[in-house]
Amino acid sequence: MDALxxxxxxxxxxxxxxxxxxxxxxxxxxxxxxxxxQRLYNHVSTSANYETQVFQLLNKFRSRGWLDQLVKAVExxxxxxxxxxxxxxxxxxxxxxxxxxxSEPERLERLIREASPFIDFSRWISDLVALQGRVCRVEGRAxxxxxxxxxxxxxxxxxxxxxxxxxxxxxxxxxxxxxYVSTGTAGVQDGRIxxxxxxxxxxxxxxxxxxxxxxxxxxxxAVGEDQVTEGRKRGFAKIPSAPARLSSGAIVxxxxxxxxxxxxxxxxxxxxxxxxxxxxxxxxxxxxxxxxSPVLAADLTIVGLHHSGDxxxxxxxLYNEGVPISSIVQHLxxxxxxxxxxx
Length: 343
Description:
- This protein is an alpha+beta fold.
- It is 26% helix and 25% strand.
- Strands 1-2-3-6-5-4 form a six-stranded antiparallel barrel.
């Protein structure tokens, strides 16, 4: 496995949380001794608590260029721990997507971070690790992104699968690829492929001014029941029946497959709502292939379905745009044939 890139900020904290989740103090001490020939107390204050000691150790190891060896030792010792198993993906997601340098017109505004409520970081990391397995690349006549909202239901944009809805009732060539992620410089996981059921088109609304640009797809198998780590299933994203309306300046995060690439995350802020609150706008980076991504509040609650960017290509982009998840839930709730997956 290749070396890690330099870690900083939230990445170091994610590594610390993974260690705390995977090892008791004595077990971590044994790991350092047996695999790295290091003694914990040679690097940390003996009077500090365990969490502080791990913090001190990571800073010491970072300054000496030893973090890569430590991560490899942690992965070798606890490969089935959920946070460790997906650690490299988590570290990659915490390096947010920025402008790509593409020659295509930019559809992105600068990222702006403003004050937000305090969040339990341990729970946030745990939720982010779980979310990684629930977002998929949608592959058909166009690339897009989608995410599980029930064990066998994927939510994405109507325009991502519009051609299949119109002309391919069986959608033989349409699939959802989960776990398509970068593991750093070590490469990319090909992921887990799930095809659609014969009655795959559950419900949808087109991307018209009055439409909501969503499609609910049924998979041929309950991917959410996959055992992805020891004792834990893949699960699915919890959709609130009445999610909060975010105020301007609130932080949003978009987990996506930009340009069909491995899973990535961008961070930005809400800039407002329009079309009688049927659209929310935000300054967060996306690319082609990001359509159908979950738009998340700072605490990772799903608040929207990303669907497009600023259509005026003659100017610097002012926003990207999504459909509030509350509008989609309301629309689905009026359809008696749709299974209720929201809470």
